Amino acid sequence: MTEQNDIRAPLPLGAAKRGYSGVIQHLAVGDAASALAADELESRLIELGFVEGARVEVLHEGIIGRDPIAVRVENVTIALRRREAMAIIVA
Amino acid sequence: MHLALVGTPNSGKTSLFNALTGSRQKVANYPGVTVERKEGSFVTPSGRQISVVDLPGTYSLRGRSPDEEITRDMVLGRTAGETAPDLVLCVADATNLRLTIRLLLELKSTGRPLMLVLNMFDIATRRGVSVDVPRLSEALGVPVVTSIAVRKGGTADLLRRTDEIAAQAHMPVAQNLWQPLTVAQLRATQREADRIIAATVSLPAKPDTWTARIDGVVLHPVAGLAILAAILFVMFQAVFAWAQPLMERLSSAFEALGQLVHDTLPAGLLQSFLQNGVISGVGSVIVFLPQIIIIFLFILLLEDFGYMARAAFLMDRIMGGAGLHGRAFIPLLSSFACAIPGIMATRVIDNRRDRLTTILIAPLMTCSARIPVYTLIISAFIPDNQVWGWVNLRGLVMFGLYTAGITSALGVSFLIKFFMLRDYAPAPFMLELPDYKLPRLKSIAIGVYTRVKMFLHRAGTTIFSMMVLIWFLASFPQAPAGAEGPAINFSLAAIIGKAIEPLLAPLGFNWQIAVALIPGMAAREVAVAALGTVYAIEGGKEAADQIGQVLATKWSLATALSLLVWYIFAPQCASTLAVIRRETGSWKWMAITFAYMFVLAYAASLVTYNIAYALGAG
User: Fold this and answer.
1) Radius of gyration (Cα) for chain A, nearest Å?
2) CB pairs under 8 A, 24+ apart, for B386-393?
3) Architecture of domain A2-90 in CATH?
4) Which element (helix H / strand E) includes B534?
5) Are A67 and B432 an interchain contact pair (Cβ–Cβ within 8 Å)?
6) For A61, which residue in chain B has the nearest alpha carbon?
């Protein structure tokens, strides 16, 4: 199990399917086409608990374009749009 | 001694506030801004008088929105005219400490005396979360207490420790070293928080299974939306059907009171003033109390249960199609109770354009003040039939009126997005979905009680004074001796009403409606009372008792439908316009709101009246 996680290629959380679970590698706020400035987006993501090493799992998806997504971050559930989730690199 | 409650949204801050203060609460605004200021007081076991403010929920002290700025400035003691808190209580949901511990580490740098309150400790224990409280306190360097806000005696520990801290002659206020955190510092504090939690808290392997199970259904893309629609449908059926028996009882009580006044006092001005002006006027508004209680009950229950955030999640993209932000769902849903708290609740939307759009359309949501008008007209003109065996036709019409409000709001929002705010990049939607919790009866009761108090206060002041004015306009000047026809035809009200009548005549409105619409500007529901007064003075006692039947004989169905439609759109509430002016900070947006709603109302009523007339309902 852990071995499988180790060799998995990193991908942005915004591209993950429902049921995906992994660990945050780093934040790449430049990659997200968010309306927010990079620093602001990064600050908000951190305030909601998206920091390196945190376990995440995609629990739910919305009806239109599978967006937004509900993500379990450690023991908190956060709803966000895929556009912003692209800044979170997981593996 | 002054306490301040600080915590992340959903930390159970408000239920702790309710548990500490009970109904000894004062809700006002901070000067200059429209952030709600909730203050209460209580007495500790040792007899110390303590005042406590419930500060807006926040994840950090950065102050991204007016609400969060208030929290920051209050904690830092920067708010003019406010005493800095002697003790800051940082409230945490014990099942979910991560984000609060980070906030607490940031709060520590302000130098204010701090205490961490692990709220909902019973739920945490039941789920297998175990916290080493002494070690946590040591690691954080602040006192830590546990509490169960919803249980009697659940705050005993908190009260005892507050007493102990208050007993120290000089509370240690350290120097304020707080500065806005950089991204790197933010990340470092979250890491530090995670390290402390790892050392002092043991978490169960599985998350809350109930929340996961419920979300599996409630957040399902298709079933979830169906459930949301069903909840809204039941809500509106309830507002109409369940409230009926209570309303009838209230109405007959006022009738009896009016009769008593009629029998006790000699005929004359005083009798007419009390019976027609005061009792039938104010009474006809108070009758709607049961419906207002029911709608607030639903909204508060859903909020307490944790469903509101789910509704925002489900609606985000759908509302996005109409140019609205998912967060706009909660303000818009609150607008069903009243547009004023709804517009104030738009402060959770931090993007100015999203917020502006939401403010512009919030008054189109059917607020509770429209209920009296809808109810009156529906019960006078729509038969009390069942359709498809179980759906009440009147309830269905009511549902239709609500739907019309929502649809037009979405339409207007779409047009705003299309024409006015074109270069639009959607603001992010990021929201915590809290674990479900059984709604707390006491909290709900306090919430409903505060709203009822506000409604009755309005009935006692605004509505009462409007009624006195209407009665005066409808009674003076009095008919000359020996004149033919009802006395009201000679009054100021008739003169005013007839002056406006030509403008409203194409909509099928008569001068009595025109008169009633004027005080309706102060508060929509006053129009009902005003119609009651106008027709009571015109038609005598029987008319006052049965205003519905009177309308059914005096108006055509086309007029009734036209007035219903008018009420969906009309900018009929001066306080809403005033709040828009205050929240947007400009007369321009207030004027735009007024103009677009007036045009919409006039056009829609005109079309409705003419179609209904052509179909033979005139």
Assistant:
1) 12
2) B391/B237, B392/B237, B392/B240, B392/B241
3) Roll (2.30)
4) helix B526-539
5) no
6) B221
Nearest-5° Cα angle at B487, B482 to B491: 120
CA atoms within 13 A on the CB side of B202: 3
CB pairs under 8 A between A and B: 122
Nearest Cα residue in chain B from A26: B187
Domain with CATH 3.40.50.300 in chain B: 2-202
Q: What is the DSSP string of B272-299?
A: HIIIIIIIHHHHHHHTTHHHHHHHHHHH
Q: What is the mean pLDDT of residues B392-416?
A: 88
* Percent residues over pLDDT 90 in chain B: 28
Task: For residues B504-517, give the mean pLDDT.
Answer: 88
Q: Three-state SS for A21?
A: strand
Of A34, A35, A76, the CB nearest to B98: A76
Taking alpha carbons only, the member of A79, A69, A67 closest to residue A20 is A69
Residue ranges of the domains in chain A?
Answer: 2-90
Q: In whole angstroms, what is the distance from residue B452 CA to residue B531 CA?
A: 24
Query: Left if phi > 0, otherwise alpha if psi is -120 to 50, otherwise beta: which for B482?
Result: left
> H or E element: which one contains A45?
helix A38-47
Q: Rounded to 5 degrees, what angle do the CA atoms B459, B461, B462 make?
A: 80
* pLDDT mean over B279-286: 73
Q: Per-residue confidence at B185, pLDDT binned at 50, 70, 90?
A: very high
Nearest-angstrom CA–CA distance, B594 and B600: 10
Most confident of B233-242, B327-336, B449-458: B327-336
For residue B59 the two structure tokens come to 């994840």
Among A21, A40, A47, which would you mutate to test the B interface (most chain B Cβ atoms within 10 Å of its Cβ)?
A: A47
| Cβ separation B221–A62 shorter than 8 A | yes
Nearest-neighbour CA in chain B from A51: distance (Å): 7
Quick one: CA torsion of B474, B475, B481, B487, rounded to 10 degrees?
Answer: 40
The string of pLDDT tens digits covering residues B35-79 is 678 889 999 888 889 999 999 889 999 887 778 888 999 999 888
Nearest by CB to residue A43, choosing from B186, B318, B429, is B186
Whether residue A49 lies within 8 A of chain B, CB to CB, comes out as: yes
Q: pTM for this structure?
A: 0.79
Task: Cite the beta strand spans of A1-91 per DSSP E.
Answer: 11-12, 21-27, 55-64, 67-73, 76-80, 88-90
A44 CB neighbours in chain B (<8 A) are 428, 430
Measured over the CA atoms of residue B168, residue B169, residue B175 and residue B176, the dihedral's sign is positive
In chain B, which residue's Cα lies nearest the Cα of A79? B431
Q: What is the pLDDT of residues B89-112, one digit of tens each?
A: 999 999 889 999 999 999 999 989
Instruction: Give residue B483's identity as a one-letter amino acid code.
Output: A
Q: Which CATH architecture has domain B2-202?
A: 3-Layer(aba) Sandwich (3.40)
Transcribe B183-242 into DSSP letters: HHHHHHHHHHHHHHHHHHEE--SS--HHHHHHHHHHTSTTHHHHHHHHHHHHHHHHHHHT
Per-residue pLDDT tens for B136-155?
Answer: 999 999 999 999 987 888 88
